[in-house]
Structures are given as C-alpha cells and as structure tokens.
Write a structure and sequence with these properties.
Strand order of the largest sheet: 4-3-2-6-7-8-9
Number of helices: 16
Largest sheet: 7 strands, mixed
Number of strands: 9
Structural class: alpha/beta
C-alpha cells in the first residue's frame, strides 16, 4: 500500500477543494494531483460525501478530461478499499471486460476463463450485475444463467483458481469493493461514463502468488496507452489491450484488427490481428443476437441496443453449446480471444498453434468440465 494522501483529512474540505479545481469551466479548471484525486475518491467510497457533490466531482473530471495522475489516484482509492486475495499460482490472467456489458451481440467473455484454464492457464473475471450507461449483458448475468455461483468472495475465488479441476473464477464487485458497488445508483443517474468506468476493471480482486497479467478491451484509439499505463500502475506484470466489440476483449471476427501489449512492465507495442489467418471466416463482427431479441434505437444516431436481461440467457445457451463443441461465431470468439491470450502469455509459440490448442479443449470437452467445476 502506498503512503497516505498528503491533503486535509476533513472529507468536506477535500471535496470542496477538489470540486473548485475540476469544475470551473473549460479554461479555468485545474488538474488534481494523484493524492488529491485519491483522497476525494476515498471520501466518496467511505460515504462521507453528499451524492450531489460526488456526481459533480466525477462529471467535472470527465468534462475537463482526467489526467493520468488523476486516474491513478482514483484507481488507488479503489484498490485501498478493495478486498483482494492471492491465488497460489505462478501466473494468473485477469479478463477485464467492460462492466456495463454488451447489447449488440452475444458476449462470449464469461466462458473465456474456463477455456484458458483448460489450456493450463489459470484465469479470473469480474464485474457487476448491471450498470449504465449500456445496462448490457454482463459476465455475472451470463454465468448465473449458465448455473455458475457468482457470489464468491475473493478468497473463495482464489481457492477455485488453485484447484486443478477448475482453475478459474468470477468475483463480483459487491464482494471485492462494496463501497464502489454502493455508487451504482448514483452512477446510473449520472447517465454518462465517468472516470470510474475507465479504472474499475483494473483493481484486480485476485492476484497470483507469482505474476498477474491483464487482458482488457477498448474502443477509442486514445485509450490503449491509458490502459497500459494504469495496468502497470496497478501492478500487472503484462498487459494485453484489445480493440474488441463494445469495448470488450474479443476482436472483430470479420476483419483485421489490432491490440497493444506490454511485458515485464516495459513499453507497449502494437500487434496486428487477422481472424482469417486463424481459419475464422465469420459473417458478422460478433455473435449476432437471435431474431427473437428486439433491439431499440439508442438515439442520437447510436446503434440499436437490446435489453441485457434478454441477451444474457441467450449468451449462456450459445456459450454452453460452444463448450460442447458446437461450431459457430461463439466458438470462433473463444478460439480467437483464447489464442490471443495464450500467445501473449508465451504458452504457444504462435497464434495458430494457440488457436489449435483452444480448439482441442473445446472438442475434447475439457473446457466444459472446467466450466462446470
């Protein structure tokens, strides 16, 4: 744990000073130091701040555009308040999908940790039931629909990860950071994304005894260096930042893409991706929604969106079918993302051999066995 923030201990004074700096208009707003941002977020997590002031602080940071130091401070406050556990494994990969879920296709991410575990790579994922602005289908929703316990403590999750017959786990925000979970309603009222959306999936509720790695998605081109920087700050030994559908970790199944990676805390480098090179030739970028799910217009020219509560059980059905060896875009998604993770971690010498390894565990049923626990 880092040294305590060097600002006034009075939460009211901390918040007043921070709001006066970040919410003074586009020309007069000032950046906060790491310690100031950390102290303000600590006060919010501890319930010492009026919800209106908390919202002004979060919106003010986003409107002026938060700096890396401010994001570090907010992330550190979350880590300070989080309950984390250590799994007795040499390597662990953290699959960090966006917490607001998926609404334009069936997400495959909830099944990826079990697939990686079957390939010999322990894995963990995490999230929340539902949160804005998308209110999409989340790993918690999908896993629960598939019959998985989604209410493990970080310690119980670490114990599952260590087991040779399982090797993966899911941890919910309410279990690893209750103070952050308590802000769900406020964040939904804010409507727009804020700095918490950027940093919350970098907390790392379970870490390896040895080295912990992270796989995180992005949409906008400005974010790869931001995520790589914050992943290093959060202590991840390596990071894989993937341009995936809806900000997730699974690249487009239909066209070439790219990812950025760093190893051993070093600088990031770009990695060109091509699904066709792995034998994946899909008709859509992601797993399409079934015809029975009705999408609604999101407004302002945005793409149509489906109800995450309707998407989740369909994703669970498709994911279980893929684990049973059924072909299709869900299987392709797991092969693509799994190969990318294995290759990044050095488990396979190239993407093609990594993809073949994933196909093997899907075809022989070992991924399904790991998923069922």
């Amino acid at each position: 744990m880092r040294e305590a923030a060097n600002v006034s201990p009075d939460p009211a004074a901390v918040m007043r000073d921070c709001i006066q700096k970040v919410a003074t208009g586009p020309e007069l707003s000032k950046d906060l130091s790491r310690d100031e941002a950390r102290a303000a977020m600590q006060a919010i997590l501890e319930g010492h701040v009026d919800p209106v002031q908390a919202a002004v602080f979060l919106i003010g940071l986003r409107m002026k555009r938060e700096t890396l130091e401010e994001s570090e401070g907010v992330l550190q406050a979350l880590r300070d308040h989080a309950t984390t556990a250590v799994a007795d494994v040499d390597h662990l990969i953290d699959i960090a999908d966006p917490y607001d879920g998926h609404v334009r296709g069936l997400p495959a991410t909830a099944f990826l940790p079990a697939v990686l575990a079957a390939c010999g790579q322990p894995a963990v994922c995490h999230g929340i039931e539902s949160i804005g602005p998308k209110f999409g289908a989340t790993p918690r929703m999908v896993l629960r629909a598939a019959g998985v316990d989604t209410d493990l403590s970080p310690q119980a999750a670490a114990a599952r990860i260590v087991r040779e017959d399982i090797g993966w786990a899911y941890v919910d925000m309410h279990a690893f950071c209750p103070g952050l979970h308590a802000l769900t309603d406020l964040r939904n009222l804010i409507i727009k994304r804020n700095t918490l959306t950027t940093v919350e999936n970098l907390v790392g509720p379970v870490r390896a005894r040895g080295r912990t790695h992270i796989m995180v998605g992005y949409v906008h081109k400005a974010y790869p260096p931001v995520y790589a920087h914050l992943a290093r700050y959060s202590g991840f030994a390596s990071g894989l930042v993937v341009r995936g559908g809806e900000g997730g970790v699974i690249p487009s199944l239909q066209q070439p893409g790219r990812a950025f990676l760093y190893r051993d805390g070093g600088p990031e480098r770009e990695l060109a991706l091509d699904p066709a090179a792995l034998g994946i030739r899909a008709e859509s970028r992601a797993v399409p929604l079934p015809s029975g799910i009705v999408s609604t217009e999101a407004g302002n020219g945005a793409q149509p969106q489906a109800d995450g509560r309707e998407v989740a059980p369909e994703a669970a059905r498709a994911g279980l079918a893929a684990l049973r060896g059924e072909s299709g875009p869900m299987r392709d998604s797991l092969i693509y993302a799994g190969a990318l993770a294995l290759h990044h971690l050095g488990g396979e010498e190239d993407m093609n051999s990594a993809a073949e390894r994933v196909r093997q565990v899907l075809d022989d049923g070992s991924a399904l066995v790991r998923f069922a626990g």
